[in-house]
Design brief:
The protein starts with 8 loop residues before the first helix and ends with a helix. Strands 1-2 form a two-stranded antiparallel ribbon. The longest helix is centred in the N-terminal third of the chain and has 34 residues, at 24-57. The protein has helices at residues 9-15, 24-57, 62-89, 110-137, 143-146, 170-183; strands at residues 90-93, 96-99. By secondary structure, it is mostly helical. The protein contains six helices and two strands, in the order H-H-H-E-E-H-H-H. Strand 1 and strand 2 (96-99) form a beta hairpin.
């Protein structure tokens, strides 16, 4: 399937710390990775492919356009910025992995890069939670989200912004609270 970018180069450079002179080759790779790995896991493969088809056809309008502008792009720009920071710091050359350096500037320390990347990821996760909550609240407006296809190659949409491998006993707590109010 053909692919489309959910962010333009200009949008990213105008709305983030990514400099105007960063090569589109790195930006495009970061956008594709972030939208595939982060946005597709939220909206699911069915709706993700529908968004791509609408962008390619030039028919992204209405609630889909509003979702893209107000929820997906703000989330995606922070994931992409985090990826671009890593890509700008390190380059793979014929001599191996290199840290970028020039006469006018010096490369950032790895701890600084990690700090900025973590900050961008925190922002992205906050926007991701907003996106998921919005989709859950208004799922009737997004039929491809609410009724995804099935199959082993289909990523199902997310209905929970936070995942934990540890069971915290949520069900028991809800049951005990319900019992408390039923007894009164």
């Amino acid at each position: 399937m053909a692919t489309a970018l959910f962010l333009s180069e200009d949008f990213l450079k105008d709305n983030t710390q990514v400099s105007k002179n960063v090569d589109i080759k790195y930006i495009k790779e970061a956008i594709l990775w972030a939208q595939d790995s982060e946005i597709q896991t939220v909206v699911g493969t069915t709706y993700y492919n529908a968004l791509i088809a609408d962008i390619i056809a030039g028919t992204l309008v209405g609630v889909d356009k509003a979702l893209m502008d107000n929820y997906i792009q703000p989330c995606l720009k922070h994931y992409v910025t985090s990826e671009c920071i890593r890509m700008a710091h390190y380059k793979i050359t014929n001599k191996g992995l290199q840290i970028q350096n020039s006469e006018q500037s010096s490369p950032a320390f790895k701890s600084d890069v990690d700090y900025i990347c973590e900050s961008e990821l925190n922002k992205a996760q906050w926007y991701k939670a907003r996106l998921i909550n919005y989709l859950c609240e208004y799922s009737s407006l997004f039929p491809d989200y609410a009724n995804p296809a099935s199959g082993l190659d289909v990523i199902q949409p997310s209905d929970n912004a936070f995942k934990s491998p540890i069971f915290l006993g949520r069900t028991r707590k809800i049951e005990s609270l319900q019992m408390k109010y039923l007894d009164e």
